């Protein structure tokens, strides 16, 4: 190589290599001086070394071994229920929660023993409806570019097994209910990840083909025909994995002693009307405690529904004390509620206790976590992650709650025999949503339902599906 060219090449390489080195010493970077200061700050006593060894070996998932004041399972007011459900490896907590509310009432009203609705039956229709919601959304946005925010959101979220209360209300009122023995769980209803992956692939591919057909001039009628062909494939996949939903069945109802008291033929809709018979859309109100947004306002989440012809999730944002009063009124009247929270925070899963002092990170790490609920929401540190059935409250002599209890859907071997007990302080910090019958809702809140809602985008991080 020519010497001048070689020297010039070295100069180019030197300049290229120097570029990242210069960036590393720019303002705000971790320089050698900053790193030396950080290293020098680390304690290194024998006690610190022992602590480090303990944490390295055992982790820090549950560190408050000195805690002894766990809340007990005695409650002044409790709605009775029989049996614990288990969603297993699925994100169907929203469906189990809604059905637990309804089955508790059915058991009480009919003096029955343990009874369960078929979650698999309702999940089948949920998946088909979500597939249609996605595909019709693709048709509706066919003239928007691929990098449009709504189009991106649709393709990122074609389907899933998570959800919220509108999935319960729309599904059950449209398709009815059946007992668990009529359409029992399957391997893939209890373990939904593989089914979700396949359906997502089918729908994303179908969505692209619909957009391509639209680009080639296909009108709505042709796109609708193409959509139906995709839905037929989705239906077949669901049948293979979940079984085919019955259109009619014969079922015998038993009393608490196990004696058969009636045997009748039903359709899913007639079964729903006989044993539930409520308007789950109009007779219930969803309230939220979100201090990052103004209280006593009505909000609607765009595209947050389970069926295309359904209603977007709409809620009233209220202070936590208002939620407590509605919840207490409902429990006093022996009525369970759909409830959701950030269940993973400060959870002692073995004991089934949610309390603010379950994890003593201050003693272990020297870290105090002092963010408010509003700050945790704003920084994505907390949000509603799981739905359960609120069923009990313990009131002191002044009528103030000291602890609460929910019926969970993680099986009877999880938590306190399938239940979770939460302190009132934890309830304040990590409760988000409650669905309550209108008769327990103050007139002030009901009046807000008549106002025009503020519409929030589908991708708002506060409104991820509960699982």
TrEMBL record:
GO terms for biological process: homocysteine catabolic process; proteolysis; response to toxic substance. The keyword Protease applies. GO terms for cellular component: cytoplasm. The keyword Cell membrane does not apply. The active site is at 93, 386, 408. It comes from the Bacteria. Keywords: Aminopeptidase, Hydrolase, Protease, Signal, Thiol protease. One of its GO terms (molecular function) is cysteine-type aminopeptidase activity. Pfam families: Peptidase_C1_2. Residues 1-23 form the signal peptide. Belongs to the peptidase C1 family. This is Aminopeptidase.
């Amino acid at each position: 190589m020519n010497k001048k060219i070689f020297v010039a090449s070295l100069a180019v390489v030197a300049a290229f290599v120097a570029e990242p080195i210069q960036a590393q010493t720019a303002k705000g970077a971790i320089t050698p001086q900053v790193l030396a200061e950080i290293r020098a700050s680390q304690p290194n006593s024998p006690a610190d070394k022992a602590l480090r060894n303990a944490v390295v070996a055992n982790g820090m998932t549950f560190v408050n071994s000195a805690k002894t004041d766990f809340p007990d399972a005695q409650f002044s007011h409790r709605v009775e229920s029989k049996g614990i459900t288990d969603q297993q490896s699925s994100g169907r907590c929203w469906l189990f929660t809604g059905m637990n509310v309804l089955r508790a009432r059915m058991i009480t009203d009919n003096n029955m023993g343990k009874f369960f609705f078929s979650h698999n039956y309702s999940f089948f229709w949920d998946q088909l409806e979500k597939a249609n919601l996605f595909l019709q959304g693709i048709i509706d946005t066919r003239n928007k570019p691929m990098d449009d925010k709504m189009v991106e959101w649709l393709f990122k979220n074609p389907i899933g097994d998570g959800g919220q209360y509108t999935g319960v209300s729309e599904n059950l009122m449209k398709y009815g209910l059946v007992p668990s023995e009529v359409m029992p769980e399957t391997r893939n209803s209890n373990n939904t990840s593989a089914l979700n992956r396949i359906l997502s692939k089918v729908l994303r591919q179908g969505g692209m083909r619909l957009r391509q057909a639209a680009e080639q001039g296909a009108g709505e009628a042709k796109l609708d025909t193409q959509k139906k062909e995709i839905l037929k494939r989705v239906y077949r996949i669901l049948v293979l994995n979940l079984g085919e939903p019955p259109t009619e069945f014969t079922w015998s109802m038993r009393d608490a002693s196990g004696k058969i008291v009636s045997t009748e033929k039903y359709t899913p809709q007639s079964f729903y009307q006989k044993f539930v018979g409520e308007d789950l859309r109009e007779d219930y109100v969803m309230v939220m405690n979100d201090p990052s947004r103004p209280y006593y306002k009505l909000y609607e989440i765009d595209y947050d529904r389970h069926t295309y012809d359904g209603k977007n999730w709409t809620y009233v944002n209220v202070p936590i004390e208002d939620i407590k009063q509605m919840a207490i009124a409902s429990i006093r009247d022996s009525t369970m509620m759909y409830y959701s929270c950030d269940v993973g925070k400060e959870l002692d899963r073995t004991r089934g206790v949610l309390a603010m002092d379950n994890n003593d990170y201050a003693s272990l790490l020297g870290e105090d976590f002092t963010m408010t609920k509003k700050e945790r929401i704003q920084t994505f540190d907390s949000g509603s992650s799981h739905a359960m059935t609120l069923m009990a409250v313990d009131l002191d002599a002044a009528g103030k709650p000291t602890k609460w209890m929910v019926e969970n859907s993680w099986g009877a071997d999880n938590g306190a025999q399938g239940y979770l007990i939460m302190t009132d302080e934890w309830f304040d910090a990590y409760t988000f949503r409650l669905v309550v019958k209108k008769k327990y809702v103050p007139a002030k809140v009901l009046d807000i339902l008549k106002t025009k809602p503020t519409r929030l985008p589908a991708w708002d991080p506060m409104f991820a599906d509960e699982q």
